[in-house]
C-alpha cells in the first residue's frame, strides 16, 4: 500500500468532487466497484489507488475528463485523455459531422460553442439573426452569452430580456456549481451586471421551455420571433476538446417564426 502524509492532492480533490455530487462514500464505492473502506483510505490520504481505480472513481462521480486528467496528475500519473486542437487533421470527421449538422438545421440558427460559451462555428441562419451586432462583440473569441445580453448585442431586440437573461445566468451558475470554472464564474458576474432586475412573480413562458422572444434585425420589420433551444454534446468523447463542445440549436416555437427565419436566410 502506498501512503501519503497529507490530506490534499488526490485525497482532497476526491472529497471535494464527492461532496459536490452529494454522494456518500458507500454509494461511490458501489458505483466504482470497490469498498467503502478503500474509498475512506483514499480520501484520508492513507492510500493512493492505481490509475484504473482513479478513472473508475472519476467516472462514477461524472467528473469532466479535463478534471479527470488533473486527478491523475495529483496522484502522480500521466494524463490519459488527450486534448487535440479542433483543426488537427485527426478531428476532420468530427468537424465534418458538426458542419453537416449545422447546415442540416437550416433555415434555423445553430451554433457550436466550447465550455466557456465561446463560438466555435455557426450556420448562416445564426449570422442572419445576429445582423447589426457591434463588431467588437464578433471579434474572436466570440462569447455567445455576452453577445446575447450586451446592450450593443442582441439585448435591445430581446422582448423578454429580464426573464431570458436570468434564465441564461442561472444556467451558467448551475454549471459552475456542478463543475467549477473561474472563467465561467467571471462571465456569470459580467452578465449579472448587464442584466435587468430579476423578474418577480410567475414566469410568462411556455410550460416546457423558456422561450427567446426576439425582434427581427431590421427595425422597419419589427416582427417577433419566438425561439426555444436545445443543447447537444458528445456523450462518449474521450478527447477533452470534443467532450467540451456543445451544439446549441434554436427552434421555432410557432409556425410564424419558422416562416420568418426562412425569409431571413433567403435575404
From TrEMBL:
<dbReference type="GO" id="GO:0003677">
    <property type="term" value="F:DNA binding"/>
</dbReference>
<feature type="domain" description="HTH cro/C1-type">
    <location>
        <begin position="14"/>
        <end position="68"/>
    </location>
</feature>
<dbReference type="InterPro" id="IPR001387">
    <property type="entry name" value="Cro/C1-type_HTH"/>
</dbReference>
<dbReference type="Pfam" id="PF01381">
    <property type="entry name" value="HTH_3"/>
</dbReference>
<protein>
    <recommendedName>
        <fullName>HTH cro/C1-type domain-containing protein</fullName>
    </recommendedName>
</protein>
<dbReference type="InterPro" id="IPR010982">
    <property type="entry name" value="Lambda_DNA-bd_dom_sf"/>
</dbReference>
<dbReference type="InterPro" id="IPR041413">
    <property type="entry name" value="MLTR_LBD"/>
</dbReference>
<dbReference type="Pfam" id="PF17765">
    <property type="entry name" value="MLTR_LBD"/>
</dbReference>
